[in-house]
Design goal:
The chain is 91% helix and 0% strand. With 89 residues, it is an all-alpha fold. The longest helix is centred in the last third of the chain and has 41 residues. 3% of the residues are buried.
């Protein structure tokens, strides 16, 4: 296995992680921004007020996209295991 192939595998793995984490991170970011704006306008500075909506948003995104995320990760893992014999050469 050449350095180029190893680099391609690493690049593909990093891209897979970014694609799978992006919906969760973006939903937490949007909810956090909305809650921060509400806190700023109402002068409520409760720390737990930002935590609970973010967790609920992440769980909601996982409920809707979890199947796709796990199937994508499964396909990537299957592809890696399929390449193991080629890596041993």
């Amino acid at each position: 296995m050449s350095i180029g192939e190893v680099t391609a595998l690493l690049r593909q793995g990093i891209l897979e992680v970014l694609i799978l984490a992006a919906p969760l991170l973006l939903s937490a970011l949007v909810v956090g921004l909305v809650v921060a704006i509400l806190q700023a306008t109402t002068s409520i500075q409760e720390q737990t007020l930002t935590f609970v909506p973010k967790v609920l948003a992440i769980l909601l995104v996982l409920a809707f996209l979890g199947g796709w995320m796990f199937s994508s990760l499964g396909e990537y893992t299957t592809e890696l295991f399929r390449r193991i014999p080629d890596m041993a050469r």
